[in-house]
Amino acid sequence: MREIFKKQFQEELDLLEIKLEDNQIDQFYDYFEILVEWNKVMNLTTIIEMEEVITKHFADSLSLVKAVKDLSEKEYKIIDVGTGAGFPGIPLKIVFPQLNITLMDSLNKKVKFLNEVIDKLGLDGIQAIHGRAEDMGRDVKYRGQYDLCLSRAVANLSTLSEYCVPFVKVGGSFIPYKSGKIEEELGAAKHAVFLLGGKVEGLETFLLPGTDAERSLVLIRKNSETSGKYPRKAGLPSKEPLK
Ligand code: SAM
């Protein structure tokens, strides 16, 4: 199984032009095994078949290389909001060990899983925290502290911007992983992004390597401090997205 995994994953890595050492590929395989094992007793992901985990979780997480070209050189401080079972944060940490990554999720059982993965894979410079974005984004320990905020499959872009932009330093970026009708979503969220101190500066749309699944990475630059009004209290950003 490990050998088949390595061969299939290597094909994805080649398409993304990412080169890894054997021990890093082993870390991905160990992560896959822990994911499958824990998923038997808790609902972490519906994607569990090996080939799909490789394309839809691992390669998709790593597709950030298409939007951020200097990931291998910089010691970026990154927060992954609503990370779930660790996507995209853990794959990025395995490939780019110099990154400092905070994984955040509102479900404590997922944080327990993340700590197990961090421990078993021997990762450092990565921490999993339990909390809601709306609360953590008001905490001075996290607010305005990150070069990059990433988030995949958590909320619509307006809601997600209110969760995420407060974490970013002025000059840093929020990069949501999006799929579907992105132009429409961008139009609906444009004013929200502006209210939060951000500006949409770029969009990378591509097919996930080796699949016909479309992925868009939106580059939202933070140009000014987020007003103290945001994020609003827990629940409001999703109930009444900023317009
Ligand atoms: N990012 C992962 C992925 O792409 O596989 C997980 C996506 S899962 C569909 C959404 C995750 O966001 C869940 O784990 C959920 O607990 C978390 N979440 C939802 N709302 C949140 C909030 N307000 N603050 C923090 N985490 C949140």
Automatic annotation (TrEMBL):
Enzyme class: transferase
Record localization: Cytoplasm
Protein's name according to its UniProt entry: Ribosomal RNA small subunit methyltransferase G
Broad class of where this protein is predominantly found: cytoplasm
Similarity section: Belongs to the methyltransferase superfamily. RNA methyltransferase RsmG family.
Pfam (any one): GidB
Function: Specifically methylates the N7 position of a guanine in 16S rRNA.
GO CC list: cytosol
